């Protein structure tokens, strides 16, 4: 890996970041002597291999761009519904810099995707896809059936909906399994908000790959920070009995899926209004305090920039001004909301280099913030009331693991942002890594 960076020294910072985060998780591990290295090494390996395929292999990159374009075409059908319903509020005329209203255009994608997912679940398509992906993760990483299925589910459904797939088993989960469930929830984004982030300016290719890389990476981080010390009751994916759809036909699925998504849209709108207002209030207070001591112009985001500057540097953003901007985005994402962070990213894209923008997109791609922590406590606590004390105890450790998983993806992306000249070199590297791991 060091040799790979010989002609681009600034890419070495990502390697230093990987080393730092790995050592940090080992030091903070609940029981370091009980770490099972199989899920850890395989998790990071799968994360790395997928990064190579998407970012370093020309054929893989082009196929993934095609996939993201297909996803965008599918999601763009949302605007047929929003234009019909809201008119110019969704698609305003291109005059005087007028922009679409966020609530009437971008967030409505959540309703469309919610209805679509409900129909796919009714016909058993989502269950079949998730079971096959979960089997692959369990075969390679050795994670339990519930952990693997939830990790794959989070990529499509999100941290609030995915645990519904394994609801009957939450009551009997081990502490490490529950920690892994929360970590994967913090490491991924839901398919329903995918188009929202794209509309803010995020690259769909990077978002898609970051979401998939987050699944094995989150399990690896979870098993480092909270190793398994008990015996799980779920060994094989085939033993899991996924709950069938409650609806009786596809039309009912569309109606119920849309209605459930409305609650999510309402929650997102409420969060955006309150947290943007609170950020403005705190920035005003900080600016006033700075003025009193002769330093006007201070803001909450400026403080975030300096506080998270070291993290931005470690994940590969080595230019000072660029690292300050990315650090500011990381602070907004963790302390406030990923929605606001991606909105800010879209506003500062012209100030970032393509490489810094790519790293920021990977680092922000998750629900790892304090709002999501509250959501997870409510969802999992509601499914298993007797596990509430344990959930409260593990939630901050899981949030830390989720954040680090995203940072690891960003480190890998920052290091692998140059294409290979031929596919032979790619497969030689992948096979040599797997051979050494199996030895």
From TrEMBL:
TM segment ranges: 12-33, 39-59, 109-130, 178-200, 261-286, 298-316, 357-382, 394-416
Localization annotation: Cell membrane
GO annotations of cellular component type: plasma membrane
Keywords recorded for this protein, A-Z: Cell membrane, Membrane, Transmembrane, Transmembrane helix
Main location class: membrane
One term of GO molecular function: nucleoside:sodium symporter activity
Keyword Membrane attributed: yes
Keyword match Chloroplast: no
Domain Concentrative nucleoside transporter C-terminal residue range list: 206-414
Domain Nucleoside transporter/FeoB GTPase Gate: 104-201
Topology versus the membrane: Multi-pass membrane protein
Domain Concentrative nucleoside transporter N-terminal: 16-88
Family classification: Belongs to the concentrative nucleoside transporter (CNT) (TC 2.A.41) family.
PANTHER family (UniProt xref): SODIUM/NUCLEOSIDE COTRANSPORTER, SOLUTE CARRIER FAMILY 28 MEMBER 3
Protein name per Swiss-Prot or TrEMBL: Sodium/nucleoside cotransporter
């Amino acid at each position: 890996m060091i040799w790979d960076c010989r002609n681009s020294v600034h890419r070495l910072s990502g390697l230093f970041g990987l080393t730092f985060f790995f050592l940090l998780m080992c030091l903070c591990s609940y029981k370091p002597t009980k770490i099972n290295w199989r899920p850890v090494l395989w998790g990071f390996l799968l994360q790395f291999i997928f990064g190579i395929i998407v970012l370093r292999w020309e054929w893989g990159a082009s196929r993934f761009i095609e996939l993201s374009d297909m996803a965008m075409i599918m999601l763009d059908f949302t605007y047929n519904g929003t234009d019909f319903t809201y008119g110019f509020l969704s698609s305003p005329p291109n005059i005087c810099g007028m922009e679409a209203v966020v609530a009437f255009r971008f967030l409505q994608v959540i309703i469309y995707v919610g209805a679509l997912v409900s129909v796919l679940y009714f016909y058993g398509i989502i269950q079949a896809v998730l079971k096959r992906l979960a089997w692959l993760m369990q075969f390679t990483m050795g994670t339990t059936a519930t952990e693997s299925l939830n990790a794959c589910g989070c990529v499509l459904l999100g941290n609030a909906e995915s645990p519904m797939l394994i609801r009957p088993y939450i009551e009997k989960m081990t502490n490490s399994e529950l920690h892994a469930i929360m970590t994967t929830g913090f490491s991924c984004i839901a398919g329903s908000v995918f188009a929202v982030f794209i509309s803010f300016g995020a690259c769909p290719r990077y978002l898609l790959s970051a979401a998939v890389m987050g699944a094995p990476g989150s399990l690896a981080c979870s098993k480092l920070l909270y190793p398994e010390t008990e015996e799980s009751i779920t060994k094989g994916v085939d033993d899991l009995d996924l709950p069938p759809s409650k609806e009786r036909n596809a039309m009912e699925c569309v109606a119920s899926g849309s209605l459930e998504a409305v609650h999510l849209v309402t929650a997102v709108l409420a969060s955006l209004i309150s947290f943007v207002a609170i950020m403005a209030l705190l920035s005003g207070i900080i600016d006033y305090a700075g003025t009193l001591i002769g330093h006007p112009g201070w803001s909450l985001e400026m403080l975030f920039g300096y506080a998270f500057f070291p993290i931005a540097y470690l994940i590969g953003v080595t230019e000072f001004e660029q690292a300050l901007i990315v650090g500011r985005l990381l602070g907004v994402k963790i302390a406030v909301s990923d929605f606001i962070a991606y909105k800010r990213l879209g506003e500062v894209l012209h100030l970032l280099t393509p490489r810094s923008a790519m790293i920021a997109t990977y680092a922000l791609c998750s629900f790892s913030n304090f709002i999501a922590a509250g959501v997870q406590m409510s969802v999992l606590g509601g499914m298993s009331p007797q596990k509430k004390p344990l959930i409260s105890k593990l939630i901050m450790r899981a949030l830390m693991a989720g954040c680090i998983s995203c940072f690891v993806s960003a480190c890998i992306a920052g290091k692998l942002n140059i294409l290979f000249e031929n596919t032979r070199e790619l497969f030689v590297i992948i096979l040599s890594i797997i051979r050494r791991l199996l030895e």
